């Protein structure tokens, strides 16, 4: 068997990895979870190392100990996980001179999954937790969990009492050193998440349209938008909604007819900044309009 070179890819939420042969032939593979990708990468690297050293490969991977159902409903699992009576409890935890409100540890999530028989062992629980993290249901905070998500040789979700996480639609906020890169220290991020999802937004300068992930919060009333292809916590921008006006529109003045049409709505802020957005369906557009109108009236 000819030696292979393996490189991890950055496509499809980092679930893809690439094998390149000596003849420069590229082969792309996609895993279903970050952990599955990492197990395959580690095993293939070990096979290559053994072949190059003339050694026999003996599996030490934990993949055989992971036998999850073919389809896992992460949304249902998330609802159970954050159940106020029977789910993971949100706590106020102090770490590195900072206080993290409405959060919990990675080890707590793993223990909950095991205690509720959602997983048979810790590797399975870690895979489920990593899936929740990858899909944005759970968010890392603090240096330990954020570093874990970026280290290629380790699992992205950490079964650790020092690794902190929070629910994506919780009232999480952090108090402490203002020099911390965690943008959730800002007052505008303390509001409860009312709605989130991906919609098209028109740029203010080039007037081109790009998909952005929007998170709507009240008290204070803000919509933050993010690049959905990146895992960064920091938003690309924010829209202050107190006193804003939102309405459905038939067309966008600066857009060509073939560029965009249907399910459009416009937000005009109190300082008369205009934002043009497009939802995937008429129903989704109406839902966004209703919740934004409510927040603009009630939020601070």
Please describe what this structure looks like.
- There is one protein chain.
- By secondary structure, this protein is α+β, with helices and mostly antiparallel strands.
- Helix content is 25%, strand content 28%.
- A seven-stranded antiparallel beta sheet has the order 12-11-10-9-15-14-13, covered by helices on one side. Strands 4, 5, 6, 7 and 8 form a five-stranded antiparallel beta sheet that branches.
- Strand 4 (91-95) and strand 5 (98-105) form a beta hairpin.
- Helix 3 packs across helix 4 (122-134).
- The model is unreliable at 1-13 and 178-185 (pLDDT under 50).
Descriptors for this entry?
300 residues, alpha+beta, 7-stranded antiparallel β-sheet, 5-stranded antiparallel β-sheet, 6 helices, 15 strands, disordered N terminus
Q: What's the Cα radius of gyration?
A: 22 Å
Which structural class fits the helix and strand makeup?
alpha+beta
Largest sheet strand order? 12-11-10-9-15-14-13
Share of helix, binned: 25-40%
Q: Number of DSSP helices?
A: 6
Strand content: 25-35%
H-E order: EEEHHEEHHEHEEEEEEEEEH
The overall pLDDT average reads: 79
**Main β-sheet, in a few words?**
7 strands, antiparallel
Low-confidence stretches: 1-13, 178-185
- Strand tally is 15
Rough shape?
globular
Terminal Cα span? 65 Å
């Amino acid at each position: 068997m000819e030696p292979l070179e393996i490189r991890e890819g950055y496509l499809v939420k980092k679930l893809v990895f690439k094998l390149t042969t000596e003849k420069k032939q590229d082969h792309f593979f996609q895993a279903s979870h970050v952990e599955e990708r990492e197990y395959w990468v580690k095993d293939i690297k070990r096979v290559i190392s053994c072949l190059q050293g003339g050694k026999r490969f003996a599996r030490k991977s934990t993949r055989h100990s992971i036998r999850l159902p073919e389809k896992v409903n992460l949304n249902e699992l998330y609802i159970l996980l954050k159940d106020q009576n029977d789910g993971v409890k949100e706590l106020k935890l102090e770490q590195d001179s900072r206080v993290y409100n409405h959060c919990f540890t990675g080890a707590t999530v793993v223990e909950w999954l095991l205690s509720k028989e959602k997983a048979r062992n810790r590797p399975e629980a870690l895979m489920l937790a990593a899936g929740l993290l990858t899909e944005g249901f759970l968010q890392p905070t603090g240096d330990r969990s954020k570093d874990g998500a970026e280290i290629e040789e380790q699992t992205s979700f950490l079964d650790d009492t020092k690794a902190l996480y929070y629910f994506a639609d919780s009232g999480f906020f952090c108090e402490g050193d203002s020099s911390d890169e965690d943008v959730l220290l800002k007052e505008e991020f303390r509001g409860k998440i009312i709605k989130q999802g991906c919609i098209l937004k028109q740029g203010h300068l080039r007037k081109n349209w790009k998909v952005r992930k929007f998170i709507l919060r009240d008290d204070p009333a803000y919509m933050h938008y993010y690049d959905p292809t990146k895992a960064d916590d920091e938003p690309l921008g924010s829209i202050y909604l107190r006193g804003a006006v939102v309405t459905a529109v038939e067309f966008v003045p600066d857009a060509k007819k073939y560029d965009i049409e249907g399910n459009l709505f416009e937000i005009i802020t109190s300082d008369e900044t205009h934002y043009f957005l497009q939802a995937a369906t008429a129903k989704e557009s109406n839902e966004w309009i209703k919740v934004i109108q409510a927040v603009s009236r009630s939020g601070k």
